[in-house]
Amino acid sequence: MAVSDTQMIDAWKQVLTLSQLKAGDIVTLLTSDGTHPQTLRTALVALGQLGARANRLELPPVNGEKSLSRDPLAYLGSTPLSGNRAAIAALKESDLVLDLMTLLFSPEQLDILKSGTRILLAVEPPEILARLVPTEADRARVNRAAARLERAREMHVTSAAGTDLRCPLGDYPVIQEYGFVDQPGRWDHWPSGFVVTWANEGQAHGTVVLDRGDILLPQKCYVQTPVRLTVRDGYVTAIEGGLDADLLRDYMDAFDDPESYALSHVGWGLQKRARWSTLALYDREATIGMDARAFEGNFLWSTGPNNEAGGDRTAACHIDIPMRGCTVFLDGEAVVRDGRVVEQEADA
Ligand SMILES: O=c1ccc(O)c[nH]1
């Protein structure tokens, strides 16, 4: 059910305060056709009450005629900012950008962040935003996991269904997603609660077997029958199985881009308040599936772009694949065992 404007204004004030918003800060709200009116309306009230100076930049949607889905994460790389000097200048001059339309994985976003601007993505429906309002404890937990991942030189993932994937690490940074932007130049996504990094280019290898209940995004489906993906030299070279495999292959083949099959980010979920089962309760187009990406103990891996991590691959096709019941080893030490996070000392 819906949340009240009062609840959403309080949620925005918590996120903006955690994001170190100060009175007088210049904040630009990036909006487009898909922006949720209650999210926008309550953000403006919260910003006003916190003494910020709020601008609104409305941009037309793009890629609708190319994408096979209306999900804003289904077709990446080019955004309404591409080549839009005036819009980019406004965002670079802002202290904080509230992205209510989805810039994720866009080259322009990285350029804007380099100017010190903070960008917070928030496109889930208000009731999900309100349920998963970030906390300082979320940040601390993600931060501890990130420190562990930064030290790792290999991620090895296994599962009872047959997954056995090795990802040499170290060439790419670790990205922490805890739901607010408390540092200059930081991007984050509200809601979230997970860590990701990228395998060293061309080095990931092994097999991933999706089992019943594992999730495909943007398909927003729970896999019903096993899907076996072979990974060689950092690319998915085979997708075998039944109908789920055929549907995934058909979707990816439509982009006609070999870079679609590259491995993208790998990591795991840490958000106790996100649920694996939520996706079953939403219409496909009503959510982008952040509960699925963030639920505690998932192994979240993906295919396609690496420009978020400083790479030059802006593949339009991006598949996020949160899996249950995996064990994630970092240099031989389990950080997730059979789908449950191995508590680090301060997590208890
Ligand atoms: O927040 C996000 C959302 C999608 C994604 O692929 C990564 N992080």
Q: How would you describe this structure to a colleague?
A:
With 348 residues, this protein is an alpha+beta fold. The protein has 2 domains: 5-131, Thermophilic metalloprotease-like, CATH 3.40.1830.10; 136-345, no CATH class. Helices cover 23% and strands 27% of the residues. The protein is built from 8 helices and 20 strands. An 8-stranded antiparallel beta sheet has the order 14-13-10-6-5-18-19-20, covered by helices on one side. It has a 5-stranded parallel beta sheet with strand order 2-1-3-4-8, sandwiched between helices. The protein has a 5-stranded antiparallel beta sheet with strand order 7-9-15-16-17. Helix 2 (37-49) links the parallel strand 1 and strand 2 (53-58). It is globular, with a radius of gyration of 19 Å. 5-oxidanyl-1H-pyridin-2-one binds at residues 73, 104, 177, 189, 192, 293, 302, 320.
Order of helices and strands: HEHEHEHEHHEEEEEEEEEEHEHEEEEE
What is the total domain count? Answer: 2
Class inferred from helices and paired strands: alpha+beta
Could you list the spans in which at least 5 consecutive residues all have pLDDT below 50? none
Q: How much is the radius of gyration in Å?
A: 19 Å
Anisotropy-based shape: globular
Number of helices: 8
Number of DSSP strand runs = 20
Report the end-to-end length measured between terminal Cα atoms. Answer: 32 Å
Strands of the largest sheet, in order across it?
14-13-10-6-5-18-19-20
Q: Calculate the mean pLDDT score and round it.
A: 96
Q: What percent strand?
A: 25-35%
List ligands, each type once: 5-oxidanyl-1H-pyridin-2-one
Residues in helices, as a percent range: 10-25%
Largest sheet: number of strands, sense, barrel closure: 8 strands, antiparallel
